[in-house]
Amino acid sequence: MGIEASELSEFLKITQISVYYENEQLVFITRIPLVFDVELSLYNIISIPIKFVEDGVDSWYISTTTYTYVAITKDRKQFTTYTEKEIKDCIETAIYRICKATQPMIDNNDNTPCELQIFKAPDAFQTGCNINKFPLVRNIYHRILNKNTWIHVGDDTLTISCTDLPKIVRSRSAITILDINCQVFTRNAVLTPIEDISSTNYKDFVPTTKIQNIFNKIPEHIHKYKLSDVWNNTSNIQLTDLHSVSRSLDEIQQMIDEEVIREQSQKHQFIHSNLLKETHKFIIMDFEFSMVKRTSIVVISGAISNSLEKFEVSKLEGRPLLLPIDEKARPMIEKELQVAVKEIKRIFVCKTELQDACLDQLKQSLNSTRNNLTREYIDHYIRQGNKENNIIVVWNGHSDKTILQRLNLDYPMLNITCYDKYFNKNFFIQFEKLSNREIIFEVDIGKFDKTGRLLNLVETHDRVCNRKHKTTYAHDPRLDVEYTKCIFNHVLQKQRYENLIQYFKI
Which domain of life is it from (predicted)? Predict the structure, then answer.
């Protein structure tokens, strides 16, 4: 672009010219923007919903996005972002769209949002993607800006009306009208073309991730849960509006838990006793942790669940917590995380399985979008249901007791162990009230040939439960909570729930 006569039209698009008259002279002041020679590809991020059918139940899912417009370098290693308003302020030339650099260039690394990581590895499954579920109440027709093309979501019957021969292109998820003399009639909408404002054809970027990998990560009970209509009679919803009518998987899990509580309250039917409705609740918990500098605890992850069978186990993930002995608990900063990694490698130098499990979970927690490894979430989970007595149940949980104390969570605790009481390899499951070390219940589970006087969690569970639980990975706190729940309920079948709550009255 220059200042030749033939180029002035393009030149004037990007300049600001002021003219004034002085001393019989016309003075032109021309302001030319400073343009960096960086060529970026601009993408409007549109997340396409996907339908999953299981046991005849249709479920619709969408990946939530952080940015609306992303400008990315050709090598996809750097990017910047724009809002809708900033895009409208850009200047169109014959060759480029020139936009103000309102945001810095950012490296596209493992810490960037899901939609940016897809650009780097379009065929890889991105574990950091935040998936939401929504009910498809009616078909969606999302019009592409300045185009006679609509993205279609749902199942619909189309009727095409043209003054001439129809020129309609229909793909799996898009409808393009090539003739402005045509209209497309659907059950609830009419698609009417306009004169094309833009004649430029842009190449779409569609990742090739295997969608089935995403569905495999979603629990079956989430698939089957039917969301209520939250569209509020909205007649013309677009794909960009779906964030307001969708729910995250964590929100759905909480809705399921609350529905279980509500149903049980309405029917007055409880697994252990009707007293549970009015007075007591038992919450089973487990933490994965390590030590730093001998006295500080690093909480890497955890799991929590109501003792009732209908409640799913919720995993506690997010930025690891540092629990110093004389300071307030806090999320760890980068330098503290580096120290924690070194300590884990040192402590478990001879136990590589534990070392790998801790380091892998530490990485998962840092990359997790869940972020419920907080005092506030744990306390809310314990208190929901408004019971008079909330009791924490742990397996060999003296360390768990210390963690809860440093989180300033003061609840009665029930500890479960399995002990060779008489030195004859005959083991007893013991319920211990941690506040005073009182043994409440003992259940004989028979002989077990083992060196030492304590059975571990897996050994104890396998003696009392024949169910095949879904195994995830070594030392997963969710599986530990599931095993503890089985042992807890096995003992209550023999000792009775009414007898247990006598030890935990206000």
Answer: Eukaryota
Domain assignment present for 253: no
Residue 483, CA distances (Å) to 12, 305, 317, 430 in order: 73, 11, 20, 15
Q: Quick check: is 481 in a domain?
A: yes
What total number of domains does the chain contain? 2
pTM check: above 0.85: no
Backbone angles phi, psi at 130, to 5 degrees: -95, 110
Domain range spanning residue 420? 278-502
Q: Which of these, 457, 456, 459, 426, lies nearest to 443 by C-alpha position?
A: 426
- CA 480 – CA 240 distance, rounded (Å): 40
Gap between the Cα atoms of 41 and 70, Å rounded:
8
Nearest CA-CA partner of 127 in 299, 377, 370: 370
Q: List phi, psi (to 5°) of 115.
A: -65, -25
223 and 314 assigned to the same domain: no
- Strands 280-292 and 389-395, by their bridges, are parallel
Which tokens sit at 148? 């006679």
Q: Do 339 and 480 sit in the same domain of this protein?
A: yes
User: Cα separations (Å) of 109 from 35, 76, 120, 332, 430?
Assistant: 26, 10, 9, 21, 50
Place of tokens 């909330």: 390
Dihedral (CA of 400, 402, 405, 406) sign: negative
121-167 pLDDT, tens digit per residue, is 776 666 667 888 888 877 888 888 777 788 888 888 778 888 766 55
